[in-house]
Design a protein that fits this description.
The protein is α/β, with parallel strands linked by helices and 231 residues long. The protein has two domains: 5-17 and 95-228, HAD superfamily/HAD-like (Rossmann fold, 3-Layer(aba) Sandwich); 21-86, Orthogonal Bundle (DNA polymerase, domain 1). Helix content is 42%, strand content 13%. It has ten helices and eight strands. It has helices spanning 21-34, 42-45, 50-61, 69-86, 99-107, 122-129, 153-165, 181-188, 204-208, 222-228, and strands at 5-9, 16-17, 94-95, 112-117, 141-142, 174-178, 193-197, 214-216. Helix 4 (69-86) runs parallel beside helix 6. The termini are close together.
């Protein structure tokens, strides 16, 4: 009987792209709370956690004195509202190549257990994934609510998955699947395996420099992806 494998999927750039609506919602929330225009680049967002993004932008713009917990909570609340409004239909959401058939195949395997590993707050993740029916395949996960440091999220996701699926995973049987160097790093520092996919804002050469266990252009070849998890 094959060992149970835990597959921890990132969201933005891995499962979907949301047309920049997450960044737009975040900047709108910050601008509303602090009554000043905020700007940021994609590198401020890619692979980070929602609460860390907010923390860093508050610090950069010097609009509050640390600690920023109350201000971050206020921004998160408005961010959820803005995001829900912007993604009230799914016109801005692009599902990445191969995601639906891959998850369908994973769902037929008793030894492959899907979960989320994302810097999105849990409610934001649900807002992004529900319109394209990608929330239901993931019963548990580690989210940006759980820690600002992304490297702390994988053990949270693993603990929840072990409770849900009723198994204990060896580190070598946990896969972090993502599209940024930060995804690769957070898997590696926790002793987990990493599958990098070049469907986000980083090309294959940039991801290869981080030395993931597996590097794919996309997840469109279901059989090839599943083969990565064998052994």
């Amino acid at each position: 009987m094959p060992a149970n494998k835990l597959l921890l999927f990132d969201i933005d750039g891995t499962l979907i792209l949301s047309g920049g609506m997450g960044q737009k919602a975040m900047l709108a929330a910050l601008s509303e709370i602090f009554e000043t225009p905020f700007e940021a680049s994609i590198t401020d967002f890619a692979g980070s956690t929602d609460r860390l993004i907010i923390h860093n932008l508050i610090e950069r713009y010097r609009v509050a004195q640390p600690p920023f917990e109350e201000q971050i909570d206020a921004v998160v609340k408005r961010y959820r509202d803005h995001l829900a409004h912007l993604l009230s239909d799914n016109h801005h959401i692009e599902v990445m190549p191969g995601i639906y058939p891959l998850l369908a195949a994973v769902g037929k395997r008793e030894d492959l257990h899907p979960a989320l590993l994302t810097g999105n707050i849990a409610s934001g993740a649900q807002i992004k994934l529900s319109p394209v029916d990608l929330w239901r395949p993931f019963p548990v996960g580690g989210f940006g609510d759980d820690a600002m440091d992304r490297n702390l999220l994988p053990p949270v996701a693993v603990q929840r998955a072990e409770a849900f699926y009723g198994v204990v995973y060896r580190p070598g049987d946990v896969w972090v699947i993502g599209d940024t160097p930060r995804d690769i790093e957070c898997g590696r520092v926790n002793g987990y395996r990493t599958l990098a996919v070049a469907t986000g804002h980083y090309n294959a050469a940039t991801l290869a420099a981080e030395k993931p266990d597996v590097l794919l252009e996309d997840l469109s070849d279901t059989e090839a992806v599943l083969a990565c998890f064998e052994g």
